[in-house]
Design brief:
By secondary structure, this protein is of the alpha/beta class. It has a single domain, classed as Alpha-Beta Horseshoe (pyruvate-formate lyase- activating enzyme). The protein contains 12 helices and 17 strands. It has helices at residues 30-33, 36-47, 68-75, 117-120, 133-138, 164-167, 169-178, 215-221, 228-239, 264-278, 296-305, 334-351; strands at 25-28, 52-54, 78-82, 92-94, 98-101, 105-106, 111-112, 127-130, 150-153, 183-189, 206-212, 222-223, 250-258, 285-291, 319-322, 328-331, 356-360. An 8-stranded mixed beta sheet has the order 4-5-9-10-11-13-14-17. Strands 2-1-3-8-6 form a 5-stranded mixed beta sheet. Helix 10 packs parallel to helix 12 (334-351). The protein binds iron/sulfur cluster. Iron/sulfur cluster is lined by residues 108, 110, 112, 115, 117, 159, 190, 225. Keywords: Lyase, Plasmid. It comes from Gloeothece verrucosa (strain PCC 7822) (Cyanothece sp. (strain PCC 7822)).
Length: 361
């Protein structure tokens, strides 16, 4: 199974060339092909010379008879263009990140071993993009509160930038939110191909964050993503004013999942130094801090996908946290949490005094 890690069809990454993923197989359902967005994505796929299959049914049934290893390998290298079910138009809140979450895709081509999708999505990790995008976007206004700035997170079930060169859907969202004064869009990514976003009319309504981590964590557990250096370089470009060739976006840094690795203070201090170097100018910057946690279900899926993982998934030495639905997750002990929280909040206050720390969890 470990051979699978990093086995995505990505263009070779270097510091200067963005990380781009290309599927080995592209599926279109009939209902997706019947939409203008589906047609646009189809044209992109033809132009990219990617292998397209037009299905005869809206059901995707390509994994029959395959073992788990092969299902994972095929799912992570296949892009399916589908229409989102109407049930997905009923939105769910997503505290503390945003008021609501909505989805333009589901699944991600990267191979982060701690990925939260392991616990939140079921079935094969097939990458699905939604062709009924106008319907998805037009649905959002009914969730906006009058006289308040309602926030919408688009990155809960996917990394939208990882797929942007194939779909253009994230750009469409940013343009749409640019016309919605009472709403703001929140995006988070571990990829770096931001050139399609730079000159979009976002109107200050979108905040783009990069998710980054200390070098040992990123090196060991984040196969298939852009390097942390490349993500920070992309963030700099997004934050720079448009008059200086940047995107003029509000930006953010998500440090997740924070892990108590050996010499964790040293490694996270180095990460803060990298952020300081990348953002050495005044900008609208937020931080979000998320410690490592897992559930029984996510542990089971992660061990199935990455049986040789070195992730700390030992329930012993963790605290059990209950959610309001009775579910449990394993988090660091209260004393450890306190110590880490103090370290991170002090680092941020000292190094980025005008930034905003949105939450620690
Ligand atoms: S980039 Fe994000 S969504 Fe994709 S595998 Fe990594 S953690 Fe999961």
């Amino acid at each position: 199974m470990s051979a699978i890690i990093g086995d995505s069809s990505t263009a070779s990454p270097s510091f200067d060339s963005p990380r781009l993923w290309y599927p080995k197989r592209v599926l279109f359902t009939p209902s997706a092909l019947n939409t203008p967005t589906g047609q646009q994505i189809h044209q992109r796929m033809v132009a990219l010379n990617l292998p397209i299959e037009e299905l005869s049914s809206n059901r995707i049934n390509i994994f029959k008879g395959l073992d788990e290893r092969e299902i994972y390998r095929q799912a992570k290298t296949t892009l399916a263009v589908v229409t989102a079910p109407s049930s997905s138009l009923k939105l769910n809140p997503v505290p503390p990140s945003a008021d609501w979450q909505f989805h333009i895709a589901q699944g991600c081509p990267a191979h982060c071993q701690y990925c939260y999708l392991a616990g939140s999505l079921t079935g094969a990790p097939l990458i699905r993009v939604y062709a009924n995008l106008p319907e998805i976007l037009n649905n959002l206004s009914s969730y906006c509160q009058p006289n308040s700035d309602t926030s919408f997170e688009v990155s809960c079930y996917t990394d939208p930038l990882a797929l942007e060169h194939l779909t253009g859907s994230l750009s469409e969202c940013i343009r749409y939110f640019g016309t919605m004064p009472a709403a703001n869009l929140r995006v988070v990514t571990k990829f770096d191909e931001i050139s399609p976003l730079i000159s979009l009319p976002h109107n200050g309504q979108t905040r783009i964050r990069v998710s980054i981590n200390a070098a040992p964590v990123s090196r060991s557990f984040e196969a298939g993503t852009a390097s942390v250096e490349a993500r920070l370089k992309a963030l700099r470009k997004l934050a720079l004013p448009q008059s200086e060739g940047g995107g003029g976006y509000r930006v953010g840094v998500v440090i997740a999942p924070i892990m108590l690795i050996d010499n964790w203070q040293l490694h996270y201090r180095r990460l803060f130094e990298q952020i300081e170097k990348a953002l050495d100018f005044e900008c609208d910057l937020t931080f979000e801090l998320i410690t490592h946690r897992f559930t029984a279900k996510s542990k089971e899926v992660i061990l199935q996908w990455y049986p040789k993982t070195k992730l700390d998934l030992d329930e012993k030495g963790r605290s059990v946290k209950y959610n309001k639905f009775g579910g449990t997750k394993y988090v660091y002990l209260a004393e450890q949490m306190k110590m880490m929280k103090q370290f991170f909040t002090e680092e941020i206050a000292q190094r980025f005094p005008s930034s905003q720390l949105l939450y620690w969890t």
